[in-house]
Write a structure and sequence with these properties.
Keywords: ATP-binding, Nucleotide-binding, Transport. This is Nitrate ABC transporter ATP-binding protein. It is built from 7 helices and 10 strands. By secondary structure, it is an alpha/beta fold. The chain has a domain of 141 residues: Rossmann fold. A 6-stranded mixed beta sheet has the order 6-7-8-3-9-10, sandwiched between helices. A 4-stranded antiparallel beta sheet has the order 2-1-4-5. The longest helix is centred in the C-terminal third of the chain and has 25 residues. It is globular and about 50 Å long. The protein starts with a strand and ends with a helix.
Length: 258
């Protein structure tokens, strides 16, 4: 397995006692898959992503990328956040090169690699623009180019389209599918948007809440990935299955808390 999460638990100590955020998380992700983890607030989605990114360490269990334990951040994982985190004083070319500069990549290679990935995401004409001159969708594409420039093994995405309007989000979904097909990169994305998860991923991990657990793994087999598929019964069947699962577990969590 390319990305393997084994028996991962995460808890925090609070004034009220031990808060268990993630419990017994097990995931096996192959190279080139597009995986979504879906859950409501309280399911530990962002905490899980932090463990994979190496920004935090599991209480118990482990995360491995290509057989190697994750012990901290590294260039083998690219990160894309909901908010674009572009440096406003740098142009888009400089933003894309920034991570490479930190890695000590020579200037010429930085320029060539950044230019290549800006072309991949369709922003070559805006390389000298500042982020304030770009639309929301363009800013997110720039953030994706920056993450790809380090040529990571896994692209991690934290609710990357949550701040976009519905039309821009739809455009970005089509862009991501095209990018995934062209690069064959492994993508792990967290989202609370059920329709987004069904449309983009080839497998979904449904997370229950309080604590976050893997409720079910759903394999998504759609005949096509286009706007038209969203009107078909097969798409709505997946969506309804996932919605019913999350809804039932949410009610169980409320009952247990009471």
């Amino acid at each position: 397995m390319y990305l393997k999460i084994t028996n991962l638990h995460k808890h925090f100590e609070t004034k009220q006692g031990t808060l268990v955020v993630l419990k017994d998380i097990n995931m096996d992700i192959e190279q080139g898959e597009f995986i979504c983890a879906v859950g409501a607030s309280g399911s530990g989605k962002s905490t899980l992503l932090r463990q994979i990114a190496g920004l935090d360490q599991p209480t118990t269990g482990d995360v491995k990328i290509d057989g190697k334990p994750v012990t901290g951040p590294g260039p083998d994982r690219g990160m894309v956040f909901q908010h674009y985190t572009l440096y406003p004083w740098m142009n888009i070319q400089e933003n894309t090169e920034f991570g490479l500069k930190l890695q000590g990549i020579p200037a010429r290679e930085r320029r060539e690699r950044a230019s290549y990935y800006l072309n991949v995401v369709g922003l070559s004409k805006f390389a000298k623009s500042l982020s304030k001159e770009l639309s929301g969708g363009m800013k997110q594409r720039a953030a994706i180019a920056r993450a790809l420039a380090s040529e990571p093994k896994v692209l991690l995405m934290d609710e990357p389209f949550g701040a976009l309007d519905i039309h821009t989000k739809e455009s970005m979904h089509n862009f991501m599918l095209d990018l995934w097909k062209r690069t064959n990169i492994t993508i792990f994305m967290i989202t609370h948007d059920v329709e987004e998860a069904v449309f983009l991923s080839n497998r979904i991990y449904a997370l229950g809440a309080r604590p976050g657990t893997v409720r079910r793994e759903i394999v998504v087999n759609l005949p096509e990935r286009s706007c038209q598929i969203k009107r078909q019964t097969v798409f709505h069947d997946y969506k309804d299955e996932l919605m019913d699962l999350l809804r039932s577990h949410g009610q169980e969590a409320i009952t247990a808390a009471a």
